[in-house]
């Protein structure tokens, strides 16, 4: 598969900050590629350079073999864009909005074609509802539908699920997977680690303008997510204190006590030891490393709603 | 062209579905003209000084003056019989004056005797653009009616004529209507476009549009097409109100059509020009108000510029709305297309300048 996006030494500097600090990556055709990182990591700046909306300070940015800093017009019709914090035009209905947006690309869609785009994102039942009355998830789906009007080869989705409830997020994941199934290349930015892990073929973790790790979720977990985590569900502070008293390193997270075991051969022994300690807990289970663990290891902090925990 | 029409259509749908926009574009100007018209033609309760030159001097004319004074609306002030009334008005800054001609009493006496040809006309001098003129005219009209019934035994012997002491001999409502049209052409696109620029910037629609084939000039043209249609509908409603409710004499001439067109382009573009400096809804409202409100008053939408002090007249000459208002008055009310064409030329040139600057300078991209 050929590279749809090629980025080399890309930099974007402002007087007070290096928003993008010399990054390199490629995105292959048919992939879902995620730029993952906290707010301010440089994800949106990178994407907007690739969308022709910002000029880089230095470096090379090619999309569909075109230098976007010079000739974005040539590929405009082959690229679909869902901007960050997308809000549709309040008083337009999805059917009208898609027809309108297609006209702006000189695509004169007939009713059947409009209906097909609406169906792709699962908005058929709401096609004639003014956008102001759509839910948050439906609005984002409308945004994706607008990005699809020209049947693009490449789709930029800039934090498509931010601010949505878990149910709406999962519905949107289904839509994004269907884009890949239809052969589209998707560049996704997100600060949701589970989203990147669930959807991506390839992930670049960004922090402070740099890419700190790059690979498929499995590769990243294999490379950086050493060991196994034993979860003492709902053990709480009492469980945490009990382990501390016995000199067992643990962390308390959302009421669960987590014990990290580096050597897989020690998991069974540790499990038995923990089970023998008298403390309140709902259940005990092991969890394989996730991108969250990778992120914690690489960045040194957890991330919640795009903000690094201090 | 497809992109422009698509954008105009989509924008129009959104605009008309937002009841606020429709209200201010179509209903508010009509309410304004009804309100001002009602104030103008209604009788007020406060007393007005009425200067009267009685060239008749008979007991009959003195009784007429007494009746005027008794209305409690008008306070009688005499003008000596040996002075020229227009000179007196000018030298004493009199706003309303009444001339009772010689022969007033004689004609009333002839009417009382049954002479059907008896007739006398009193002349009211004043500035029809002032509401006091209308109040005085209404009060004097009432006295004349009563006088004809009670003194001349219902014979319509006394009549009233009006004479203007402003430069243009037109009724207030005639002057007011083009002003309201100019006001609407200023406010609807200007306030609308500044608000749209704020919304498009805060909701990142400009960035979104920048990913399409639509250019900034096409986007602006689409807005202009919509506002031109909207303004012509609004003008028709304003005119219909003026003609049917206040019996105005204004006509839509070809030059007026061109002025409305050029004015709409001018102020839609000015709104986008101001949009360059707008970051959010607060700055949008502040900038639109700071530009729009002084202009609507200083450009003579509600008061003729002739009445302004000299320094305000100088300021008015620099305001684009002045030329639209003056041009519309010249062609619609005074039938003076020569003057109107000069105003049209100024308006058209400003429209082009205002269009070109934002089409080039407004950036949809991020820095």
- Beta-strand percentage range of chain A: 25-35%
Tell me the total number of β-strands of chain B: 5
Structural class of chain A: alpha/beta
Share of helical residues of chain A: 25-40%
Stretches of chain B where pLDDT falls below 50 for ≥5 residues? none
Order of helices and strands of chain A: EEEHEEHEHHHEHEHEEHEHEEHEHEE
- Output mean pLDDT of chain A: 89
End-to-end Cα distance of chain B: 30 Å
Helices and strands of chain B, in order, run as HHEHEHEHEHEHHHHHHHH
What is the tally of helical segments of chain B?
Answer: 14
- How large, in whole angstroms, is the Cα Rg of chain B? 26 Å
> Quick one: which chains have the greatest interface?
A-B, 30 and 26 residues
Average pLDDT rating of chain B: 83
Kindly name the structural category of chain B: alpha/beta
Tertiary shape of chain A: globular
Report the total helices of chain A: 11
Q: Any idea of the CATH class of the largest domain in chain A?
A: Alpha Beta
For this structure, the quaternary state is: heterodimer
Inertia-based shape of chain B: elongated
Runs of chain A in which pLDDT lies below 50 for 5 or more consecutive residues are none
Question: Helix and strand layout, with pairings?
Answer:
The complex is a heterodimer of chains A (about 300) and B (about 375).
Chain A (H helix, E strand, L loop, with lengths): L2 E12 L2 E12 L3 E5 L6 H8 L7 E6 L2 E2 H4 L7 E4 L11 H10 L7 H10 L15 H12 L6 E5 L7 H16 L3 E6 L2 H7 L2 E6 L2 E6 L1 H8 L3 E6 L2 H10 L5 E3 L2 E6 L5 H10 L6 E5 L3 H9 L3 E2 L2 E2 L2
Parallel strand pairs in A: 3-8, 3-9, 6-7, 7-8
Antiparallel strand pairs in A: 1-2, 1-4, 4-5, 9-10, 11-13, 11-14, 12-13, 15-16
Helix pairs in contact in A: 3-4, 3-5, 5-6, 8-11
Chain B lengths: L1 H16 L1 H23 L6 E7 L4 H12 L3 E5 L6 H8 L3 E5 L3 H9 L7 E7 L4 H20 L7 E7 L7 H31 L2 H6 L5 H31 L7 H22 L5 H18 L11 H7 L3 H13 L4 H25 L6
Helix pairs in contact in B: 1-9, 2-7, 2-9, 7-9, 7-10, 7-11, 7-13, 9-10, 10-13, 10-14, 13-14
């Amino acid at each position: 598969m050929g590279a749809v996006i090629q980025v080399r030494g890309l930099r974007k500097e402002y007087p007070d900050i290096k928003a993008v600090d010399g990054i390199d990556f490629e995105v292959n055709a048919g992939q879902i590629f995620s730029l993952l990182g906290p707010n301010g990591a440089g994800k949106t700046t990178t994407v907007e350079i690739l969308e022709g909306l910002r000029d880089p300070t230095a470096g090379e940015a090619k999309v569909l073999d075109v230098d976007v800093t010079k000739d974005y017009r040539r590929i405009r019709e082959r690229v679909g864009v869902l901007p960050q914090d997308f809000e549709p035009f309040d008083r337009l209905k999805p059917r009208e909005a898609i027809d309108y947006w297609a006209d702006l690309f000189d695509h004169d869609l007939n009713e059947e074609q409009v209906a097909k785009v609406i169906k792709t994102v699962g908005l058929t039942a709401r096609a004639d509802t003014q956008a102001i009355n759509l839910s948050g998830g439906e609005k984002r789906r409308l945004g994706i539908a607008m990005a699809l009007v020209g049947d693009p080869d490449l789709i930029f989705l800039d934090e498509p699920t931010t601010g949505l409830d878990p149910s709406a997020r999962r519905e949107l994941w289904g839509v994004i997977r269907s884009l890949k199934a239809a052969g589209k290349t998707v560049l996704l930015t997100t600060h949701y680690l589970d989203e990147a892990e669930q959807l991506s073929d390839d992930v670049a973790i960004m922090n402070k303008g740099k890419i700190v790790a790059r690979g498929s979720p499995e590769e990243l977990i294999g490379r950086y997510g050493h060991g196994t985590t034993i979860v003492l569900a709902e053990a709480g502070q009492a469980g945490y204190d009990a382990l501390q008293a016995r000199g067992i390193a643990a962390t308390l997270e959302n009421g669960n006590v987590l014990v990290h075991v580096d050597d897989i051969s020690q998991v069974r022994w540790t499990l038995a030891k923990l089970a023998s300690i008298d403390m309140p807990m709902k259940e005990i289970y092991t969890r394989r490393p996730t991108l969250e663990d990778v992120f914690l290891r690489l960045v040194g902090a957890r991330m919640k709603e795009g903000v690094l925990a201090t | 062209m497809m992109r422009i029409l698509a954008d105009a259509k989509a924008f129009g749908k959104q605009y008309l579905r937002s009841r606020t926009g429709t209200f201010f574009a179509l209903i508010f100007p009509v309410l304004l003209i009804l309100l001002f018209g009602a104030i103008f033609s209604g009788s007020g309760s406060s007393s007005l000084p009425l200067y009267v030159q009685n060239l008749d001097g008979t007991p009959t004319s003195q009784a007429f003056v007494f009746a005027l004074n008794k209305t409690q609306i008008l306070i009688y002030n005499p003008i000596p019989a040996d002075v020229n009334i227009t000179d007196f008005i000018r030298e004493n800054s009199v706003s309303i004056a009444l001339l009772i001609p010689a022969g007033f009493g004689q004609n009333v006496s002839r009417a009382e005797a049954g002479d059907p040809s008896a007739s006398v006309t009193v002349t009211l001098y004043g500035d029809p653009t002032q509401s006091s003129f209308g109040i005085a005219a209404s009060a004097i009209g009432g006295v004349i009616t009563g006088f004809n019934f009670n003194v001349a035994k219902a014979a319509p012997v006394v009549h009233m004529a009006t004479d203007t002491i402003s430069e243009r001999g037109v009724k207030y409502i005639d002057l007011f209507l083009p002003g309201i049209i100019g006001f609407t052409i200023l406010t609807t696109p200007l306030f609308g476009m500044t608000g749209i620029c704020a919304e498009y910037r805060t909701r990142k629609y400009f960035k979104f549009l920048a990913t399409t084939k639509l250019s900034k000039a096409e986007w602006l043209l689409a807005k202009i097409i919509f506002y031109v249609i909207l303004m012509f509908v609004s003008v028709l409603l304003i005119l219909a109100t003026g003609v049917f409710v206040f019996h105005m004499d204004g006509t839509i001439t070809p030059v007026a059509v061109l002025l409305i067109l050029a004015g709409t382009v001018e102020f839609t573009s000015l709104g986008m020009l101001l949009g360059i400096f707008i970051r959010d809804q607060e700055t949008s409202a502040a900038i639109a108000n700071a530009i729009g409100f002084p202009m609507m008053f200083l450009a003579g939408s509600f008061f003729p510029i002739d009445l302004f002090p000299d320094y305000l007249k100088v300021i008015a000459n620099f305001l684009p709305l002045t030329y639209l208002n003056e041009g519309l008055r010249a062609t619609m009310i005074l039938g003076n297309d020569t003057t109107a064409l000069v105003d049209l030329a100024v308006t058209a040139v400003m429209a082009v300048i205002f269009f070109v600057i934002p089409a080039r300078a407004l950036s949809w991209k991020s820095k």
